[in-house]
Amino acid sequence: MAYQSFRDFLNALDKAAELIRCTDPIATELEITELADRQMKSPGGGKALLIEKPTVNGLLSPFPVVINAMGSFRRMALALGAESLDALAGEIAGIVKAKPPISVRDALKLLSTALELRHTRPKMVANGPCREVIHTFDPKPTRTEPWPEAPTISDSQIQSRSPVPTLLNLPILKCWPLDAGRFITLPCVVTKDPETGTRNVGMYRMQVYDPETTGMHWQLQKVAARHARRYYDRGERMPVAVFLGGDPAFTFAATAPLPDDFDEFLLAGFLRKRSVELVRCVTCPLEVPADADIVIEGYIDPREPLRMEGPFGDHTGYYSLPEPYPVFHITAITHRKEAVYPATVVGIPPMEDFYIGTAAVKLFLPILKMNFPELVDIALPPEGVFHNLVFASIRKTYPMQAYKIMHGLWGMGQMMFSKYIVVVDDDVDVHNTSEVIFRLCANTDPQRDCIFTKGPADVLDHATPEIGLGTKLGFDATRKLPGEGFKRPWPPIIKMDAEVKARIDQMFSSLGPRPEPTRRS
């Protein structure tokens, strides 16, 4: 299902009773964060919030704010147009496991899949709602190399008195008390490799410095940072476009752990089963979704010194401290006339990002299983703030297989940041942290079943001895095999007979609800 606008998605949330409308004025300074944090920490992620009257420095913003829109598994499924995340994961598994047809039925099924995949490729259109209002700051900036000509915009389209002429008028949040300022928290940042033309859409927070500049917090391992280094080597200004809103599949795709050089708009097109329509930016040679709500265009100048960015209350649950990052200069802001400003906040888990990250794990599990056939399931519990803690279950068939999985996961994309990996047997529900910890304590000898290694670390990790460098710890919590030097018999885990469980279930069904276990105060 493709949403024509972010408001379409909000209407779907409203219809599903997943949206709370807040009609009172609420400050973008801290108040929206406090309200959203209470929802995010409610059972199941609470509800999405539509702040109809956000205030910026005490003045009403012309745009409403939506927050926690994808902060539950149900809302994540709605965002991706699916009945459930499991159903969507099954669809992906069917594609990655496709084999040459051996019958007419198989051929028709494969043809049907191919017809669906034709929608993955983005296509260019001449115009779109994201350019209903256009305000330019520096439409023809001086460049070391000329950019290709941007599309001609008539004087009637350029709004010299646009209701949102600068970043200071957008309802950008100051999330936490010690934050260095306001931060754009759900920006989809578009860059291109100057050598290959390959596009990337990533998500990097943006601290607002003044009406026309922000920080661009792309970490050194990110694809956009690699694109930037190539522009630096060439001594050329780097065009950058940022969009907010539109179909929520765009936002999910920007956060997804895709392989380098894989166009995120391909994934978005697959998820929404409709090609992403792109329009050319007004002042730079990049493309953005035609149905985005807000577009911020600009550049980064490699000759300009880096600027301190932060502190920022981060997904680690701690403030990330100030570090130097590139400065993003604004050349244009365009938007829908009825635009909505999407935002999120991060902090001590669980937060909205937990549900977005878990959805990504579910959807990409079939692809992981192609590399690791023994892998049964994987979970990133909220206490690990995404990648710090990973639980993986495997069908163990040979000695040291758990260590093979650890090293394999550490070598895959964002998993390189994982500090702790716990591998358990296939009968363990990795989404039940209590069950995993039980097996960890029961099945391991600390000296024998742990492995230390070194590798890249998240630059936001304040505990590492050096920025971006750290150690990893893996736990083999699987049953031990004789081939691993285990000489004792391995005992069976305690389980009740299935027939007895069935009989007791039937008895309690006839007697009414099961009694709650006695709890000690």
Question: What does this protein look like?
Answer:
The chain is of the alpha+beta class and about 525 residues long. Helix content is about 25%, strand content about 25%. It has helices at about 5-15, 30-40, 75-80, 85-95, 105-115, 225-235, 250-255, 265-270, 350-370, 400-410, 435-445, 500-510; strands spanning about 20, 25, 50, 55, 60, 65, 125, 135, 185, 190, 200, 205-210, 215, 240-245, 275-280, 285-290, 295-300, 305-310, 310-315, 320, 325, 325-335, 340-345, 375-380, 390-395, 420-425, 450-455, 470-475. Strands 8, 9, 10, 11, 12, 13, 14, 17 and 22 form a 9-stranded antiparallel beta sheet that branches. Strands 24-25-26-28-27 form a 5-stranded mixed beta sheet, sandwiched between helices. Strands 1-3-6-23 form a 4-stranded mixed beta sheet. Helix 4 (about 85-95) runs parallel beside helix 9. It is globular, with a radius of gyration of 25 Å. The two termini are about 50 Å apart.
